[in-house]
Amino acid sequence: MTTSSGAAWIASPTLKKVAQGIKKKFNWGRALVISIPTIWLAIFFLVPFLVVFKISLSTTEIAQPPYSALFAWDAEEAIAVLRLNLGNYLFLFEDTLYIDAYWSSIKIAAISTALTLVIAYPMAYAIARSHPKYRMILLALVILPFWTSFLLRVYAWMGFLKKDGVINGFLLNVGIIDQPLAIMNTDTAVYIGIIYTYLPFMILPLYTALEKLDGTLLEAAADLGATAWKTFFFVTLPLSVPGIVAGCMLVFIPAVGEFVIPALLGGSDTLMIGRVLWDEFFLNRDWPMASAVAIVMLLFLVLPIMLFRNTQGTKGENF
Amino acid sequence: MTFKTLVLTTVFALGFGSTAFAEDKVLNIYNWSDYFDPAYLKKFEEKTGIKVNYDVYDSNEILEAKLMAGGSGYDVVVPSGAFLERQIQAGIYTQIDKTVLSNYSNLDEGLKKAVQKHDADNKHSVPYTWGTIGIAYNEDMLKERFGDSPLNSWDLLLKPEMAAKIKDCGIGVLDSPAEMMSVVLNYLGLDPNSEKKADLNKATAAMKATRDNIRYFSSSKTISDLANGEICFAVGYNGDMLQAQSRAQEAKNGQKIKYMIPDEGTLAWFDMMAIPADAPHKDAAHQFIDFVLEPETGASIANFVFYAVANKASDPHITEAVKGNPGIYPPEAVKSKLFAQKAHTAKFDRLLSRAWTAVKTGH
User: Fold this and answer.
1) Nearest CA of chain A to the CA of B229: how many Å?
2) CATH entry 1.10.3720.10 includes domain A95-285
3) I want to staple B306 with a disulfide (CB 3.0 to 4.6 A). Which of A36, A152, B56, B242 is the partner?
């Protein structure tokens, strides 16, 4: 059935033409260029994903590795047995902890992204409008922190935020407060950490979008009598949307899964999915559950974002 | 970014740790944080010509997660009794070759017996240290809050109205689900090793009731935070708490830290040296264990990290301050109230860690 319908498919004359067209246009150089990232993704994304998916369907055991095998060979019956455990996924919805953690991560990531955008936009704007001579220096300053380890920079923030840290010391000395502020080990500290860490990822795409902006459009707006604010809201802002979208993606996606910042700066009640995942793996030593959490995170978070990006991408092509 | 750092560290740790130096004399030790005198590590290197790579962890759970994954590359690890018991079940340890351990007879016989319920005939492990879980507090800060009333009970943490008085100066609690829950069960008058769901629920409820008073859960951060006054009350391993005391004294910052074992009793743990079955340098591992069993090395551990060592021959070399410290070598009356932890089934372990996560996150 399958073969005959397949043959009919090829036999249809219009499709044949299309197939020939594709064949004629088949460009080996292009195929090669595309195949490299495809193979890369297959090896470093698809295969690990399948491994994690496999583990998520097993059961924990006190053994090495600490989960059961999916396929077992039953010697008596001489058959291979496939043992799938969907319990991990069911448990995800039974225990409110996981759903709360997903929501809380999305909330923290969304608020941080919005705040990062508000801080980054004027900075990117200023860099893009600055004299070309200084632009490279300013950009280099944005990238400079990357020369220090990310972990060290988060630890440095601990020195700033703790009870007898730099910020409290300064505020106490100046006399603005008379009791040290409790910032360390709170959600506020997590927001500060995320915004600080991801700021460059927001500035750079915004800068690229703003720098490309055609100056004559602004002149035209001014000639037509628009005020500076009007020009900004009706010309500059809409034209920088691709930069805003790219920047928000670059901040939001890693922030949702962030582990180090909530672990070091957050309190015990800072609920984020990256931390739940870590606990599941290292504290509970429950690999199958940890894998199930990871898979669901991927499905619920990454898939919608990828679809959104896809529509954005095709929109771009239509212009 | 984080992932990249992780991958790089792993590549460096594994690549250089086990492959690049494979022909050289190398030993990869994975031990608790602040658990060995660095001077003696150097001594071992000079004596044997073996290069030591020394990594640290701060919870049994992390150690187990790494060991169960396999291929950790470590040669000597130091798990606690109940964890060791599970790990032996999983078959991840090699047997200790006692014939090459010239100092094996230095071990305390009583302790050797005590740990046999975790490791039959001491086949897979050599006792390292033992200790308790107790409370360390800042004397002045608690005096401000409780006056001269005696501070000798778990009530300070587990009675919410009492803990609430300490809340503002900071409470840190050991992040160890199995150990903490058994302490709470014991406080409630229940079997500390109970696997009954109802008992677990009671312990969880007791912890949740006081949860709001606790600033954080950590097994290593409490040492420095106590020492510099960042927190004033901590539940932790006795040696860690005493290290906080001595750090505060050294820093002369006016923070007076006191360690006490509450009257209701507490958990006594045993840490054991063991060699993973896939350890790449088993000979060097045996040499190191034998080195730890030398009288002076054993004493250095007691003097440096304030834990009671299983090495009987070390006694004459241990300072009076350590030997006479009831927090390290508790008097008989206190000893009789200590209990040991048993290994839990995988099923109960899951319930336990779930309950602990719920306590920690307040959900």
Assistant:
1) 9
2) yes
3) B242
